[in-house]
Write a structure and sequence with these properties.
Length: about 180
């Protein structure tokens, strides 16, 4: 019986030694965990300062190349090539190119030529939504002398740069851009 007690005492002492060792490990691990969690918290707080805001997405930024040198080389062209002012060239451009020119070269003759070519291809510019619409499936019907309604393809230049189908869209003529003659 004494032997059993001795064995039991040995087992108990081994278990208490293991618990002490585990407590030592867990306390050092705990310190490391606290240190890492504080560092992680600092990093997260710092990253929140650089989060993307809705206002960042909404800003329209036009690229303006900066002049690195005060006096450019005399061989560097200062005016666009005359070929890029030709309406015949714009007839060959793909739709994406025409949309890019229209939206990213505002106030230029090239924007005017791109708009003219889009109108030739049956696209209609909506002044309120500042986007282009194309009648889809020839099922657009004139509701009255102020509007027409039907399915249209619209070009979404802000978020997806693609054509999207707008079902039963009402196109009011007061928003139709009709100053550019085709």
């Amino acid at each position: 019986m004494n032997e059993e007690k001795t064995d039991e005492n040995k087992n108990n002492s081994v278990k208490t030694n293991e618990k002490k060792r585990n407590n030592k490990l867990s306390s050092s691990a705990q310190k490391l965990l606290e240190k890492n969690s504080l560092k992680l918290q600092e990093l997260i707080e710092e990253s929140y300062k650089n989060c993307i805001k809705k206002s960042d997405r909404d800003q329209f930024r036009q690229y303006t190349p900066r002049m690195l040198w005060g006096n450019p080389c005399k061989y560097f062209p200062t005016t666009p090539l005359s070929g890029f002012q030709s309406p015949q060239l714009f007839e060959k451009f793909h739709l994406d190119t025409l949309f890019f020119i229209f939206y990213y070269q505002p106030g230029t003759y090239q924007q005017h030529l791109a708009a003219k070519e889009l109108k030739k291809k049956s696209w209609k510019y909506h002044k309120k939504y500042t986007t282009w619409f194309l009648p889809y499936d020839n099922n657009v019907r004139v509701v009255n002398d102020k509007m027409e309604q039907g399915n249209y393809l619209s070009f979404d230049y802000e978020s997806t740069w693609s054509k999207q189908l707008k079902k039963d869209f009402s196109f009011e003529y007061i928003y139709l851009e009709d100053e550019i003659a085709v």
